[in-house]
Amino acid sequence: MTSRRSTAVCASTLAAALALGATACGGDPVTAAGGDGKALAGQTLTVAGVWSGAEQKNFQKVLDAFTAKTGAQTRFVSTGDNVSTVVGSKIEGGNAPDVVMVPQVGVLRQFAARKWLAPLPEKVEKSVDSNYAPVWKGYGSVDGTLYGLYFKASNKSTVWYSPDVLDQAGVQPPKTYDEMLAAARAVADSGTPAFAVAGEDGWTLTDWFENVYLSQAGPEKYDRLARHEIKWTDPSVVESLKTLSKLFSDDKLLAGGRNGALATDFPGSVEKVFGPKPEAGMVYEGDFVAGVAKDEFGRKIGEDAKFFPFPAVGGGKAPVVSGGDAAVVLKDGRNRKAADAFLEFLATPEAAAVWAAEGGFLSPNKALDTAAYGDPTLRATAESLVGAGDSVRFDMSDQAPASFGGTKGAGEWKILQDFLRDPSDPAATAAELEAAAAKAFRTANQG
């Protein structure tokens, strides 16, 4: 790894260096496709992904950096959320993209099962072995073959808060779940509901459960439940639902109570804490909360919008749950040479530094010095993610078949919304989750 100082300088001068076809930081030659600015001249790389808006603009800067290094032109195709259907239709129509940025482990596995993917180049695999915690290689592999490179990640174990509200209640950021509940009660007693919960978006509730479960049940059980090797009626699941019900069952801790939470989407939950008329002191979700608080409501991250790590539950360790986007190469793409070169580029810290400087991005690449991130708060979330090493776990619902873990109004999303509405019977909720999971995994295995 380069020194902190040299990487910081690199992050600030990278775009100009790439535009000149220069060397990478420290004087080492840029390796992807030769880095002479001409190696892929005349070729066009097509990349598909879910991103739009600011994320698409920032990713375009990564694509532009690749163009500066290689001469290849690039074209980005936004798929929307239904990546599998869009990519499948393009393959059938003979217009497959060269690279897809896949947002879910389950979708990556689905693509591999359909024989759509090409194994990643040996050079990429060596970079992953050197610079990523082994868990990331595992999530990008199917049956021992590496198909996906995790370029963008998120830290979904962050609780964001208004310092003014916590100061008014006389509480400090908690270290344990029980301390968090006590702090929440103190905040509520001071006159402000403690939490804005985005219950209208079922995916946020899966993230709540996953953080509690990873800490309380441990990583081994988490992995087994994610693969449906243990049932959702397992006592560990029931216990985690009971833990979650301590928060969900207390209406005074939730902005608008349970009904209000069920009518609040994710952006609305951030607005309730950091908007012009605050209605709550804290909101749980990933590091991407900062982007909404900053861009939509003008909050200064690290000053009037801060976070603490999701606290440890019981005697467990503080959890680190992550999501992320993996780059995969399609067999039916028209430009394998450019695709392989692009994957080699994405595996470098230089590529990650392009987006890291813009914000709204974390990299699991340990070779990226955290000085590359644009602000101290983002740097802290990145350090927490990378520092977790092999104990980080990918979002469990993203590993499941979409009919269980990723469908609005169905499966885990709906069942946990029902649980938020009435958290009085965790065992019954666990039974509903098991019935839905069993059906989804059975169908996926048959397919």
Automatic annotation (TrEMBL):
Entry annotated with the keyword NAD: no
Pfam family, one: SBP_bac_1
Cross-referenced SUPFAM superfamilies: Periplasmic binding protein-like II
InterPro entries linked: Bact_solute-bd_prot1, SBP
Keywords: Signal, Transport
Signal peptide: 1-24
Superkingdom of the source species: Bacteria
Protein family according to the UniProt entry: Belongs to the bacterial solute-binding protein 1 family.
Protein name: Multiple sugar-binding protein
Taxonomic source organism: Streptomyces fradiae ATCC 10745 = DSM 40063
